[in-house]
Amino acid sequence: MDSPDNGPSESNEAPESEPVDCSEEMPVFEESPLITNSEEIPMLEELPLIKNSDQEPALKSPVKTVRIKLPPTCLQTSQEVKSDQESLDNDCDVGDIDQDIDDALDEGYMGMECTLERGFSLNESSIARDMRMERYSEVAIKYKQGSGMSRYRQALKHFIPVRKPSKEKDEMPLDRTGLYSFISYSWITSLMWKAYKTGLKEDDVPICSKYDMCAYNTDRLEMLWNEEVKKMGKDSASFHRVVLRFIKTRLIIGILIFIFTLTLGFIGPTIFMRYLITWLSSEEPITTGLIWTVGLVLSEFVRILMFGLVWSVNYRTGIRLRAACLGLMYKKLMKMSTLGSKSIGEVINLFANDAQRIYDYVVLGPLIIGGPFVAVGGVVYILWLLGPWALFGMLTFLLFYPFQYGISRLTSYLRRRTVTVTDERVCKMNELLSCVKLIKMYAWEKSFASSIAEIRSRERRLLEKSAYVQSISLAMAPTVPVLAAIITFLAHIGAGYNLTAAQAYSLLNTFNNVVRSGFTYTPYIACLLEGHISLFRIKGILLMEEISPYIGKPRWKSTAISMEGATLAWDAVSLQKRKKKKKKSKNDDASPAHKLLANSSVQEHTDVLFNIDLKVKKGELLGVCGGVGAGKSSLVSSLLGHMRLQSGSVSVQGSVAYVGQQPWILNATFRDNILLDEPFDAKRYYRAIHACNLSQDIGVLPAGDFTEIGERGINLSGGQKQRLSLARALYANKDLYLLDDPLSAVDAHVGSHIFQWLIKGALKDKTTIFVTHQLQYLPQCDRILYLREGQIAELGTHLELIKETEEYANLYRQHMESIAEEDKKREKDSESTIRTRQDSVRSNDSLQNGVHHNSPEKNPEKEEKKDQSKVPGQLITDEKMEKGDIPFAIYHIYIKAAGGYIVSSLVILTFVLNVGSTAFSSWWLSLWLSDGSGNTSVTVGNETYISENIADNPKQHFYQTVYACLIFAILGTSLLRGFAFMKTTLLASSRMHDQVFVKVFRSPMSFFDTTPIGRIINIFSRDMDEIDVRLPMTLETFVQNIWLIMSSLVFVCMVFPHFLPILVVLAIMFAFIRKVFRIGIRDFKRMENVSRSPVYSHVSTTVNGLATINAYGKQEMFTKKFMLLFDENSCVFFLFNCAMRWLAIRLDILALLVTACTAFLSLLLRGHVDAAFAGLALAYAAQLSGIFQFTVRLSTETEARFTSVQRISNYAKGLVSEAPSIIESKQPDEAWPKYGRVSFRKVQMKYRPETPLVLHDVTFDIDSMENIGVVGRTGSGKSSLGVVLFRLVELTGGSIRIDGINISTLGLEDLRSRLSIIPQDPVLFIGTVRYNLDPFDNHSDEKIWSALEQTHMKERISNLDLKLNAPVIENGENFSVGERQLLCMARALLRNSKILFLDEATAAIDTETDVKIQKTLKEAFKSCTMITIAHRLNTVMSCSRVIVMDSGRVAEFDTPKVLLSNPSSLFSKMVAAADSSWEKQ
């Protein structure tokens, strides 16, 4: 919510103004007064565009419209105002406008009511979300280090049996639970029931516990980490040791309770069950059997409750460590100016997948203690029970421990390699999504898709190996006790010893317990090892070298900036030569970029500024100029403290505001982008809006300044983004302003306005460093700094440099001459330097929100028919959260992806064979034990009697042979099952990945405009990780356990047919519990899936804006937002896990009823059922107690994990694709386009169906080899011409023909591959210079060097150590913006297309280089048709003809000479306005 107005309170008591007739209406509240002093305000028609937050209307409040008298300027057309700007400027100054704004606001003037008239209403869900976030601030507590038992006061309160719940309904109930509720998870029952009745919504979920919040735990972990670093030093500091200290107490408590649980689980089969089975074949009274039965049931019941307590402790430990680690990592990022060798994709992957691994590390890892503990107890018990011969079986059993350890190590190794490849894939996906527009325009989709496919192929090979190893490990869990038992019994009986049913089934249950406590937790070893890797990766982030603070304070108070002998450097990526044996690997066919950057991990420092001596006084305006790569942006960065000071000193006095060369825009409202969390001050806000000439732009936004701005500002033009960035800086009200080429993206008229009102006006008392390529502004600067190759070449006033130096004077003279030469017929026409640089080919000029300046299509009837679900001004679509059950269609899709129903049935058959062979071995043992000695008579001395020793059975050899053969059957089916399941599940995940990748990449640009990158990355990182790794593991265990349960129930029913009615009742209860409460589990999982995306988007936004965030000192704001977003995710993630355990406890208790019923049936039917078969039934019933709840829980977890399949499936099925890449029947000739003729006929276009038209009946013809200039004001539709030419958006009406062929009939690849574009925003990929110029090795080095020479980059590249193989880091950050633009131009030269579209391609290049580039373009593309969006009028003057766009229409189209000859033409007025701007310089 907006903060209250800090300015003087506005009066709402002014008398109502009397309506007067006027030609224009302005919606205001009735109380708004008439502004009478408006004649002195220039362009006052722009005033009613700011909404005062003090008077924000309530939801659905009626809006009243009153006619007010407007000043004469408001009644003029915008064009008349523009043409009359010169006289207006002469009559006004900054003081006048400030006074008028003050008066208007003090009198109660309201702006932005026009927004309400357009139907804007506050988004209720956004308000609820904001209020929820405010609740976090209210509930949160600050961590304070405690001592002694006081640290555990809150935790110990959980041991109070019953506690009163909190009165606040939105607080986490867990914080106020007693022992009973804590153990049984009954505190979550109300949420589970609500989910079943009505489904869960965001408002139903309590906020995160204050003790589990990210900020609270991050502070604690940060304190421990700082202590570790201080004590041990960075090199010796152990993050693992810090984590252990963080969780030590809770870890010990959890392990002790777990050991107690294991003891209870061990006592049940070894004591109570053994004596119960012995009692069945004895003549002891029934009370004895009742004691053993009650003991068996009671011990199991206590075990279940204690096991629930273990999870309660571990869950909270895990959620706290997860929050602390990621919070600490984010805070570290806030201290960085760049990521160094880390990529954005790698960082996002850390936040995505490593969070889960850290959680599993704490929750599951400690449970491996159960294996050795129960194994030792098992050995001792078996030795006591059967004697030394049992050691053969136990030895076999124990041999599986090193086997499992080896399996775990191998799994860890494979996962480590897999994570590296996954990082590479996610990083590549992030890069491709960021550059998708350029990739589409260059028709590179297939080529880049192949690179993703190659990475995915390597990832899949590693996943296959890892999955196969894990599958074998999983298959061995139920197999090992059976094999160990078989070998033990064979050795024991073979030695001539007797074996009773009590001994056999007691031993079998002991083995099962050992496995349940050891081998069932074998994946937990993998969790430990994977968590170990994740902690190392996080430590790598924490130990990243920060820039040492070097900014000091000047010695004199009058000095704002002082640099003395300062030499500064950037961190540069260099190649590390690894001394390892060269080994041919499968990834040798990787792209040159991957091969090279795999070794580029060493950070070196490259000096870029040398011996800088500079002093700037307070209030001084210093202009900075120089060629491309001269060090201008580096100078700004050095003052921000983002470089490395090699020698000398840098001092800065006061706070700093920064405007980067490439604006950084938040995915927030227009207003929030300006405020940047500062309190709202209406006067200061309007001054910033007016000074940056943003009033008209706000006026056409659907919700005014409450309109949502997309990621990277996709629905704003380049000029709007730059002015928004300037407004943010002005509103911040800092002492020092660092402006890095802020006027490159605006036209001359707007640039002049900004320079006069902002730089010379609003900032007249501020210290300003003004970097520019537009030399016409330099004479008005107090001093000018001219940089050359990182050194100060010249420094002084404009007149001094003109008189005393040659270099600056020549540069300025050349700039003037280049302007004067263009049109000698007019004295002033060519003196301007106009830049109407808008957003790249996507027509953000026209506002992709679908609003166009002066759009006539906007009528109320059509507006009412629009989808009301989307709030006006909202660009980014909310992520849809599915409701209800997972439909069968999703399972059908997964089965089809896995190979179809036949293949899936065969895989299920392998499970049947594996479990069947195991169950058959138990049945065979019971048959053998039941047969006993086979009524064999034994003579001892003179007495003959019937033997009771099983070893005396005459069929012993037969029984032993079959029993021994089952070993091979069990092992064989286990391996077969593992291989089959691994192959099919990985086939399914790979096919689904390929399908969704193709679907996403083939989506139109509107999808990428309205979908945050974080949301798409979520699909390809976390959701794919679910389907690749977690879903198969869960699904395999689930299917295995289903058959184990069926075999157990079959045995119990075979032995006790009376159990069948009981089974029916229990089955109904199980079904009811699962049906009712799986809904809550599923809803929590869906909420968790959806809540992840904002976290990833925020991390991505943060990394891209580190320089701006640090400059404005907003680290705390962004850290707070991250922690709130992460707390929201933590809350539902925690509730999901607790809901699973809630279900588990209740199912365990019901499963215990199976054991109890079986035991009591054995008790009642003694003598009617053989003790051997009764023991078999008891053994399997006892096994059910653990497996049944686990399986039902697994079924719910499997369904929850299938939400990832559903999300991917929805993307794969729901996304609309572009037109086909190639249409075989419509493929043009290889030489097409031969001439390059372009014809537009009544072209109409809108960006999305619900938005207005942005091109209206555009018609014109371009002849072969013509050079066409396109000019027009912001929002006129210039860039939209490129959008329709490249078919980024399909036409609504009309047609476009190239050489007579209607382009709508062609495949997109055929069309786009024959065209070239040089976009406004330079795009470079991670890789090498050569890879960026020629990604697919289509050209020789000679051609590449020739292209570099033509774009004046040959010298720069040849000076690099590796020349063409020099590395390019993410976003090309190791090159200046101008250098990146020149490299993009070289890329277009190599493409050599017949039609070239230049979208202000030289906007970031200095005048001298621009002159050379224009000459190169004329020579290199003289046989091409060129369409150039004008960035300088001198460029337009040299064009064959000029298209003047106005409100989406072609207003004028003729030669510059003809257009200039008509003084009333729009083109002439633009030139006149530019002349006026130039004269004022």
Uncertain residue ranges: 1-94, 107-123, 574-603, 822-873
Biggest pleated-sheet summary: 6 strands, mixed
By oligomeric state, this entry counts as single chain
Helix content: 55-70%
Radius of gyration: 38 Å
Mean pLDDT: 76
Distance between the termini: 42 Å
The number of E-state strands comes to 24
| Shape label | elongated
Provide the β-strand percentage band. Answer: 5-15%
* Spatial ordering of strands, largest sheet: 6-7-8-4-9-10
Q: State the secondary-structure class.
A: alpha/beta
Helices, by number, come to: 47
For the structure shown, list the relevant keywords.
six-stranded mixed beta sheet; alpha/beta; 24 strands; 1481 residues
Q: Could you give a quick summary of the protein structure above?
A:
This protein is α/β, with parallel strands linked by helices. Helices cover 55% and strands 10% of the residues.
